[in-house]
Amino acid sequence: xxxxxxxxxxxxxxxxxxxxxxxxxxxxxxxxxxxxxxxxxxxxxxxxxxxxxxxxxxxxxxxxxxxxxxxxxxxxxxxxxxxxxxxxxxxxxxxxxxxxxxxxxxxxxxxxxxxxxxxxxxxxxxxxxxxxxxxxxxxxxxxxxxxxxxxxxxxxxxxxxxxxxxxxxxxxxxxxxxxxxxxxxxxxxxxxxxxxxxxxxxxxxxxxxxxxxxxxxxxxxxxxxxxxxxxxxxxxxxxxxxxxxxxxxxxxxxxxxxxxxxxxxxxxxxxxxxxxxxx
Length: 279
Known about the structure:
Number of helices: 9
Radius of gyration: 19 Å
Helix content: 25-40%
Strand order of the largest sheet: 6-13-11-9-7-8
CATH architecture of the largest domain: 3-Layer(aba) Sandwich
Number of strands: 13
Distance between the termini: 33 Å
Shape: globular
CATH class of the largest domain: Alpha Beta
CATH superfamily of the largest domain: LpxI C-terminal catalytic domain
Strand content: 15-25%
Order of helices and strands: EHEEHEHHEEHEEHEEHEEHEH
Number of domains: 2
Oligomer: single chain
């Protein structure tokens, strides 16, 4: 990370391998103590092996999370890993969370987690970028796989980037799926995984999947993440291309993903989205 490395951090851990990789990287960069917030039925229990202390709470219990972080004494926190989107509407929320939601005119990942960030700031805890300690997992622009995109696929990538720049700016989603100049699916509240499945049902093999962060995106949370599960989904629909944005997407276990992409004949590419967004 840039700047001084804090001696201790609070790790608000969601689903998947991302929290573990962040904890490992934080240790390598000099963080001495990690206090983890883990969510029941969401966070992988393996996080307990990488944190000095772990507080397990139920999703929706904002008061319990804030109390645990206050007791921990940390002055910096980072959010890592997703929460299943639909769970936000299916959990019992405590009074603190209900009060926070009541104040919001628009409810989406950015407004909700932004409000949580303000709660942390009021406690004297700085919410760091979700990419903190993860710089090595954010690839630069360039082709990663053995197979390059065809001319038609390159055109679909450009179209997907232009569409994603509009839809993500409207807080609709970060993923667009294109095939032969046709928009198959645009991510909404269901999340990236469901969007990819829907595109596969609609368009069959050969889809081009584009994933970006929106312009002005708050990198403290909801940063685009690509992992092994994403590759499995792309194999399932027999996708042709996955294009992600340079410097604004975390690629978990990159070498493993590249090997998987090559094994399935997938073009895996990292693009500089600036020019395409303006096109």
